[in-house]
């Protein structure tokens, strides 16, 4: 039997790595990297991580990529994001290829995982025993994974926002340097106090 490989698939005919099986609040979309678009060293680095025991034991390769670096020292998840290699596509257009001869729709996989995660939470008992009140509440794995995914995305969006703001300030300064008449006029200020 062929070895089963998680996180790999195809987007149309293009091989890819599925970094986020679902985009938070957009279950119809996922985030992938089309491996053919990567330069050779980064392609090899990424596939080495995907094939690692850590990645194969993880349900979310994004968490593994956030801890790993490319040969050039850049953080894998950040680098893929900022170099625009992390692309959002419909889950219906992605097939997972766990073995060279098997192919399964990512939409089907997500639906099955969703069923498992919703079945794993038994209904709450309405009668709460006093001794259970001080125990920490276990967060279901699916919720933890989703929350961690949201935190990673929030961090990436914040970094994007900072970069965009810096770019906007730089362009504004450049425009004012070219044509000072465009700079905002200083108002007359506060009226003088009369004693």
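^ Assign residues to that structure.
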């Amino acid at each position: 039997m062929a070895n089963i490989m998680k996180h790999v698939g195809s987007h149309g005919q293009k091989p890819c790595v599925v970094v986020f099986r679902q985009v938070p609040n957009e279950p119809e979309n996922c985030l992938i990297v089309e491996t053919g678009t990567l330069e050779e060293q980064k392609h090899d680095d990424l596939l080495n991580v995907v094939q690692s025991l850590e990645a194969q034991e993880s349900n979310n390769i994004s968490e593994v990529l956030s801890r790993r670096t490319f040969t050039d020292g850049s953080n894998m998840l950040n680098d893929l994001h900022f170099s625009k290699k992390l692309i959002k596509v419909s889950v219906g257009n992605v097939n997972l290829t766990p073995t060279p001869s098997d192919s399964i729709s990512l939409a089907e996989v997500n639906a099955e995982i969703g069923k498992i995660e919703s079945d794993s939470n038994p209904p709450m008992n309405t009668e709460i025993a006093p001794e259970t009140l001080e125990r920490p509440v276990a967060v279901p794995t699916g919720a933890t994974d989703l929350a961690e995914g949201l935190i990673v995305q929030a961090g990436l969006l914040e970094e994007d926002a900072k970069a965009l703001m810096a770019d906007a300030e730089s362009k504004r300064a450049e425009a004012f340097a070219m044509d000072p008449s465009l700079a905002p006029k200083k108002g007359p200020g506060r009226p003088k106090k009369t004693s």
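The CA atoms of residues 78 and 155 lie 10 Å apart.
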